[in-house]
Amino acid sequence: MLRNDEFTALFQGQPFMAILRGMGVERSLALAAQAWDLGINLVEIPIQTEEDLRALTAVVAAGKERGKQVGAGTVVSLEHVAQAASAGAAFTVSPGLDLAVVQASTDAGMPSLPGVATASEVQQAFGAGLTWMKAFPASVLGVEWFKAMSGPFPQAKIVATGGMGTANAEQFLNAGASVIAVGAALADSAQLPELARILKR
User: Catalytic residue among 6, 44, 79, 200, which?
Assistant: First the structure.
């Protein structure tokens, strides 16, 4: 039986997770620091290129200096799991549900956050022992999807990912999302005060 309830402690009191996609080393370091300064503890670096892996390694090192956990995102293969582990990632995140990837990540000491978009996938994740998952793409699935899933799956802890920002974060949180994953909002100075407000709510 798989499990990923480590995320309960990782996300404790955290309405947001930062996703820094394709930003390179220096920009990723700057935005990770900005996230941590705001109070967003968890940072995810999707790994799709060699530059992404360099960024992940650098942000992991910076995170360790501040006691922050950094994960690898867009983990869709066993090779990605190995790369994430080599870079020192604390957890992995995937756009879809692949139990082989979840198992490999768990075996490597990294709790895995798989992606779901249907009731069948949520049920499959639950059946495997997973309580945390991410809804992707959340903005396409919509607020009503989260409300609907809370009926048959009240124990599900779901991270809303894809198209999230300060304009819709509270709608999704109120609909049942446990955490909102934000990326572009961190790079938009106009949204920072609102991120800070929601963090304190």
Answer: 44
Would residue 191 count as lying in a domain? yes
Q: What is the pLDDT of residues 24-33, one digit of tens each?
A: 999 999 999 9
Tens of pLDDT, residues 38-58: 999 999 999 999 999 999 999
Is 134 assigned a catalytic role?
A: yes
In the chain, the number of structural domains is 1
Report yes or no on 1 lying in a domain: no
Q: Is 79 a catalytic residue?
A: no
Catalytic residue among 26, 134, 147, 170: 134
The CATH number of residue 113's host domain is: 3.20.20.70
3-state SS, the chain, equals CCCCCHHHHHCCCCCEEEECCCCHHHHHHHHHHHHHHHCCCCEEEECCCHHHHHHHHHHHHHHHHHCCCEEEECCCCHHHHHHHHHHCCCCEECCCCCHHHHHHHHHCCCCEECEECCHHHHHHHHHHCCCEEEECCHHHHCHHHHHHHCCCCCCCEEEECCCCCCCCHHHHHHHCCCEEEECHHHHCCCCHHHHHHHHCC
Instruction: Supply the range of the domain harboring residue 75.
Output: 12-199
